[in-house]
Amino acid sequence: MIIEKGNFMADKVLVTYFSVTGNTRAVAQKLAKVANADLKEIKPAKPYVGSELDYEDEKSRVNVEHNTDARPQMAAPVDVGDYDVVFVGYPLWFGVAAQIVRTFLESQDFAGKTIVTFATSGSSVEGANGEHLHGCAPKATWKTGRRFTPDVSEATLAQWVKELGL
Ligand SMILES: Cc1cc2nc3c(=O)[nH]c(=O)nc-3n(C[C@H](O)[C@H](O)[C@H](O)COP(=O)(O)O)c2cc1C
Predict the structure, then answer these.
(1) How far is the CA of 20 from the centre of ligand 1 (A)?
(2) Measuring from atom 2 of ligand 1, which residue has the nearest CA?
(3) What is the SS3 assignment for the chain?
(4) Whose CA is nearest to atom 9 of ligand 1?
(5) Which ligand 1 atom is nearest residue 92's CA?
(6) pTM
């Protein structure tokens, strides 16, 4: 997204996201379109499959990662060096961002950059604001994130981007 500031300054925007079942991806793709942003996926080195995702099983992969505050490895780095504004999208797992989002945030230098979170969920809302992640990128300027449903319209997302006043 090129945001005009005066006559010459411009911000470069990146939309990053982690998604297992496609809901967050659907929002990320629309957001990148309306914000005229680049789009990069946060991929796990080891994909989440089957019963690994069973949040009711306290021994499942997702439960163990959550309870141990794990940092699951990424398949490849997601570089944010070229960007001024980075949107970070994730599913809410146990009311907060999936742990790999912390891996990503801690892997990059966000000094001088703005981060805005967005999330999808079954019903949880609060963790979408991103506040629980601020410690993973303390040098960033954080803006309050929002929850969206996968069928959110491009118009709604465009209005949100406008309201953020980036
Ligand atoms: C391990 C796990 C934990 C979840 N925890 C929550 C939760 O606490 N609150 C909620 O509303 N939805 C929860 N969900 C549902 C997901 O947030 C929801 O399906 C999300 O849209 C999935 O995004 P994705 O398709 O991009 O992977 C959970 C799903 C999984 C797999």
Answers:
(1) 9
(2) 93
(3) CCCCECCCECCCEEEEECCCCCHHHHHHHHHHHHCCCEEEECCECCCCCHHHHCCCCCCCHHHHHHHCCCCCCECCCCCCCCCCEEEEEEEEECCEECCHHHHHHHHCCCCCCEEEEEEECCCCCHHHHCHHHHHHCCCCEEEEEEECCCCCCHHHHHHHHHHHCC
(4) 124
(5) 17
(6) 0.95
**39 close to 28: Cβ distance less than 8 angstroms:** yes
The 10s digit of each residue's pLDDT in 141-155 is: 999 999 999 999 999
pLDDT digits (tens, 9 = 90+) for 43-68: 999 999 999 999 999 999 999 999 99
Q: Whose CA is nearest to atom 30 of ligand 1?
A: 93
Confidence band of 6 (pLDDT split at 50, 70, 90) = very low
Q: Which CATH superfamily is domain 13-164 in?
A: Flavodoxin domain (3.40.50.360)
* Domain boundaries along the sequence of the chain: 13-164
